[in-house]
Amino acid sequence: METVIYQCPGCGAPHSASEEDVAIKCSYCGTSFRTFKEEKRFVFPVYYDSSAAIENFILWVKKQTGYEESMPFHINLIDVKLHFLPFWTATVRAKTTFTGLGEDAKFSSPDALGYRSMKIVLREESGSFERFMEVAIPASGEVKVEGITAVSRRRLYFSHEYVRQKGGILHGATVPRSEADALIRQMATSELTKLISREIVEVKSRSDEMEVSDLALVYIPIWEVIYEFKNRKYRALIDASSARIIEATYPPDILEKAGYVGLGAAHLAAGVAAASIFWPLGFVAAAAAFLGFLGAALVYFWRGVKPTRAAETIQAKSALEVGTQVLSSTTRRFSRAGA
Fold first, then answer.
1. Mean pLDDT, to the nearest integer, of 316-324?
2. Pairing mode, if any, of strands 41-43 and 245-250?
3. Which one is predicted more confidently, 72 or 193?
4. Which of 172, 152, 185, 223 is nearest to 321 (CA)?
5. Higher local confidence (pLDDT), 145 or 242
6. CB-based burial of residue 79 (10 Å sphere; 0-12 exposed, 13-18 middle, 19+ buried)?
7. Cα–Cα separations (whole angstroms), residue 336 to 98, 102, 127, 171, 232
8. HSE (CB half, 13 Å, CA atoms) of 311?
9. Is the pLDDT confidence value at 118 over 80?
10. Strand, helix or coil at 28?
């Protein structure tokens, strides 16, 4: 029977396991994780190899503001790895019906000068919201990747052979189905609560309907690219299924960064000048003036030396949390009692 390699979600150590194993305990850190062999598992196909992913990343960097123009021609690849990260994905239908008190403006009759006064009054209100969402949540605490979206894509039935063919690193999962289901319901309930709070200030009654379907464990392939430019290392995470840049750092434009350093120096000088002006008023006044400019100077200095970080953004009509995207529009029915 062939063995497969899982990466421990606790310490990252590789572990050999049989394809029939259900659970694995790391011999290095003691973390227990599961293969979820009993679940119906899926994997997003790898449509972009490392060369295509890196090429797309360089094209993406060229579209960003404030990047070092010579960077695309002088990067040195340090390490390129393909990770298969576990996520629980599901489709959620969430509906809530509520009653409560909302705020309304009431205007008085015009006075002698023609002015009206206004006061806020409470009135009975009721309504309902319904949302259809596709959600993706990490199946392991190790997964710190943000910006993963659960947009509908073609997916394959999971097989260890597919991971081996692609030369990927398979990451273990620790979140069971029951916990994932509870977390997804909690996120959907929180989203409905936010919608209600926009309409009323006090809830008198509320009834929620929640339907979670197609809950499945999906492995999402992500390229991790470590590269070097002018003796500094940078990192990029690229979705191997869509070529979307999940997160990346890249070398900044020297002139832009020099401008930030210059602004920092100018604020520092202004702080010294302000302190000297306020010194006759006492130490506290002078220190307050100096510290105000010093804070701004430190912000500019930091922006002048740190790498630039960015990611492609997905426009969504609403979002629950990181990794959640609303696929369909919101249906809202709202009525005012006595209107």
1. 35
2. unpaired
3. 193
4. 185
5. 242
6. exposed
7. 12, 9, 8, 52, 61
8. 15
9. yes
10. coil
